[in-house]
Backbone:
């Protein structure tokens, strides 16, 4: 590693330390906190449009009456923000930046200034996106998929500035994550601690790096597509205009060629977080480590060949559906494999129900439902009916909510002591978990039912549709909205716990969970440069309950001949409340 | 399963419902099994004093079989689902039977125009009957449709038929259906198409041959009358927003 002087004692000043830092930990936290702030906007959008869906025409508190154009841009922005400005920065930008150097045992990313630039561009993209709410004509309302010609021509979308700013923001966001991804991959390849072989790398680093590779491989065509769309919008070219020889379906291919790998760009880091948390609190070696790595790689490769399953009924040659149905069901094999392995990891464990563990177990339990409902949509025959219904909405919320929130909460509550040097409150953490998870299910199960009854997406008022405007359907929508309000209310518990613990939480030691990976060797919080002495790795990351040892964990950094400081038979005491 | 919530009004509605039921049974069984094992493990292996966790690498062949058997099951059931799904897809979207009737569907922001072939059964002849937002078909006749979009991407969906097809500007997309039940059902636009997307509703009216003939006669007469009024009015582009020359729009 090119050395930073290990001068944690010298205070670099507020701006250098928190705003203009090249420290991977600061950049990781910048990403994470920006993502959490954007989540508030995304959640507010969901609140407003769900209120309109449940109580059409009513004035929504804090917003007012919801017009059709409002509804469209709120739906669009909710999707865009939650995927590109919440899941991406929290899972990749946040955990990726924070954890990669710490878990590899090095002092920073290989290209710290590129890293800083990455966050700065991301921040700029957030500003551009938020600015698009306030331009004449309002924010873009053509759905997060932005299909042209609607997105290409303001005569159709009626948002001349909103569409362009939306597109610019998304393109900038892509650039930010490309720069970040370069760092992730290079650092993992080059800067591992001495002794850390490829199969000694913690799973979360594997999954984040594979995700970064997927992102780099899939986003290029979409960036090109975005430039063409930008030209269609502002210069008047006709790349997507059939009247001038263009083709609107081209965008759909470019978008989904990125859009489906993107699902795995987010799923894989979430799976990584869950693996790290599960082994620590089950005190158990990860079952079949190599199988997980190979499955993650296989998932990544296959994810490049499934995109047109979003387009079965989009006017592509119907014979193509056979191929994409096949690949889509094939991808269920490695993903299912990973979940089997996770469940197998629990076998024979000694499970402690801490807050991070509850989130991790909840992730597995909830994602299973999201995964299997995808089979209805990947099968071309049944997708004819389910395409663009609320069944799809419920399906991907059962995948994305576990990914973007449950795994993120698992990670935040797990690494909070490392990040801020204090423990979060366990009781309030559990209140937050149960309140959120129960309300989440009551929110989305009804939407599976309305979707199966033909309820289609992005409709701000059902009065035009006799089959949808029934009292039964409306009562399900109201139930979903009420559950959403409860879900949102429980996030206040998290925010208060987070802020309170930041200042008043119990002071955390370096390794409060008795975990094995290298980040727990560094002080909590780690200073600039991370480690007092650079660690050496002696074994894999998941050596829990090794029979020959009295202690039930065996850190990667501990030499083999170190004496076992605890008497035979002794073990880690149970956490309070377990 | 879907038929509990929505009637089956086309020949392939029950086929699609059958596929959905098949998938629901297969994945339902495996979902419940997986959740039972998951929660069983969570309960059985909760931390208890004096019981230490086991050391299982999961790399031995004998240990891996616990993951490989479910894995083989996934492959087998994936194949079953694929075969069933593609048979249904083929029936609905690829192997269209010869059409007995023709109809043209034109989507635009934010209405549907339907061009019925009229008494001669051919499109693009003077006796064509155009309607807006209301589509009229006969029961038990095979229809082939031709789907157009004038401006942006729309999607033609009749939930009671289990039929859905995007309309793409610049393309004529063909499909078919055979109504099997008389009545009136919703037509939805299910692709985001702009501010009026949520209002882009239509109705499909399915009647017996006699009923259908009566509708068509009525519209021919109204259309002739409307045309007389329209031609005396100086409207430059009647065709683009065709309300003046249209009959049957009930809204």
Residues:
């Amino acid at each position: 590693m090119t050395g930073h002087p290990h001068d944690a004692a010298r205070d670099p000043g507020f701006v250098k330390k928190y705003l203009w830092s090249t420290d991977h930990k600061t950049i990781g936290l910048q990403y994470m906190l920006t993502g959490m702030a954007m989540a508030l906007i995304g959640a507010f959008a969901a609140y407003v449009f769900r209120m309109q869906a449940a109580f059409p025409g009513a004035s929504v508190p804090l917003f007012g009456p919801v017009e059709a154009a409002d509804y469209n841009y709120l739906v669009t922005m909710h999707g865009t923000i939650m995927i590109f400005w919440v899941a991406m920065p929290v899972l990749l930008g946040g955990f990726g930046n924070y954890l990669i150097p710490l878990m590899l045992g090095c002092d920073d990313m290989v290209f710290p200034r590129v890293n800083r630039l990455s966050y700065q561009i991301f921040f700029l993209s957030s500003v551009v996106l938020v600015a698009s709410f306030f331009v004449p004509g309002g924010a873009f309302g053509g759905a997060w998929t932005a299909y042209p010609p609607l997105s290409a021509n303001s005569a159709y979308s009626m948002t001349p500035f909103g569409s362009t700013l939306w597109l610019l923001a998304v393109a900038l966001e892509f650039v930010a994550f490309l720069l970040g991804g370069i760092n992730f991959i290079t650092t993992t390849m080059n800067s591992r601690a001495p002794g850390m072989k490829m199969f000694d790398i913690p799973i979360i680093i594997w999954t984040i790096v594979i995700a970064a590779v997927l992102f780099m491989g899939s986003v290029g065509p979409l960036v090109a597509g975005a430039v063409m769309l930008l030209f269609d919008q502002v210069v008047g070219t006709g790349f997507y205009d059939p009247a001038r020889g263009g083709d609107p379906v081209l965008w759909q291919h470019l978008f989904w060629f990125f859009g489906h790998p993107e699902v795995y760009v987010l799923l894989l880091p979430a799976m990584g977080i869950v693996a790290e948390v599960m082994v620590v609190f089950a005190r158990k070696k990860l079952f079949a480590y190599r199988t997980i790595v190979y499955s993650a790689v296989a998932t990544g490769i296959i994810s490049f060949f499934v995109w047109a399953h979003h387009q079965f009924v989009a006017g592509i040659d119907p014979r193509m559906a056979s191929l994409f149905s096949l690949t889509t069901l094939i991808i269920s094999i490695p993903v299912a494999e990973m979940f089997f392995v996770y469940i197998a990891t629990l076998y024979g464990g000694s499970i402690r129900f801490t807050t991070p563990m509850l989130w991790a177990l909840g992730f597995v339990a909830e994602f299973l439902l999201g995964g299997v409902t995808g089979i209805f949509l990947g099968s071309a025959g049944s997708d004819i009916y389910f395409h663009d219904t609320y069944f799809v909405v419920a399906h991907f919320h059962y995948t994305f909510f576990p990914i973007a929130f449950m795994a993120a909460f698992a990670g935040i509550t797990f690494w909070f002591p490392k990040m801020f040097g204090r423990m979060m409150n366990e009781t309030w953490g559990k209140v937050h978990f149960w309140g959120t998870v129960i309300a989440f299910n009551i929110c989305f199960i009804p939407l599976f039912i309305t979707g199966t009854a033909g309820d289609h997406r992005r409709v701000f008022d059902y009065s035009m549709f006799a089959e949808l405007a029934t009292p039964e359907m409306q009562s399900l929508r109201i139930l979903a909205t009420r559950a959403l309000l409860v879900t949102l209310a429980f996030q206040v518990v998290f925010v208060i716990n987070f802020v309170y613990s930041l200042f008043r939480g119990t002071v955390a030691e370096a390794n409060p969970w008795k975990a094995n990976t290298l980040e727990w060797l560094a002080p909590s919080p780690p200073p600039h440069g991370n480690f007092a002495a650079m660690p050496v790795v002696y074994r894999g990351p998941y050596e829990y309950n090794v029979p020959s040892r009295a202690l039930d964990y065996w850190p990667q950094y501990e030499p083999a001949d170190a004496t076992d400081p605890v008497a035979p038979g002794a073990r880690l005491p149970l956490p309070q409340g377990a | 399963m879907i038929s509990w919530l929505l009637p089956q009004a086309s020949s392939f509605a029950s086929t699609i419902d059958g596929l959905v039921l098949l998938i629901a049974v297969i994945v339902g069984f495996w979902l419940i099994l997986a959740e039972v094992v998951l929660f069983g493990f969570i309960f059985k292996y909760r931390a208890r004093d004096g019981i230490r966790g086991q050391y299982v690498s999961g790399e031995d062949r004998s240990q891996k079989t616990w993951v490989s058997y479910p894995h083989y099951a996934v492959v087998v059931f994936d194949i079953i689902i694929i075969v069933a799904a593609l048979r249904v897809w083929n029936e609905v979207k690829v192997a269209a039977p010869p059409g007995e009737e023709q109809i043209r569907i034109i989507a635009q922001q934010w209405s549907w125009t339907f061009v019925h072939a009229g008494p001669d059964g051919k499109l693009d002849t003077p006796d064509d009957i155009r309607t807006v937002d209301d589509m009229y078909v006969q029961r038990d006749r095979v229809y082939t449709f031709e789907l157009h979009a004038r401006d942006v991407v729309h999607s033609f969906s009749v939930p009671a038929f289990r039929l859905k097809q995007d309309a793409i500007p610049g393309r004529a997309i063909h499909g078919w259906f055979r109504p099997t039940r008389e009545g009136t059902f919703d037509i939805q636009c299910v692709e985001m198409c702009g501010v009026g997307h949520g209002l882009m509703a239509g109705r499909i009216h399915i009647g017996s041959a006699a009923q259908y003939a009566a509708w068509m006669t009525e519209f021919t007469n109204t259309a002739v009358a409307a045309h007389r009024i329209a031609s005396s009015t100086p409207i430059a582009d009647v065709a683009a927003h065709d309300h003046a020359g249209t009959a049957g729009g009930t809204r």
Observations:
- Chain B touches chain A through 91 residues (CB under 8 Å).
- Chain B has two domains: 2-94, 101-245.
- Residues 233-251 of chain B have pLDDT under 50 and may be disordered.
- The first strand of chain B starts at residue 101 and ends at 108.
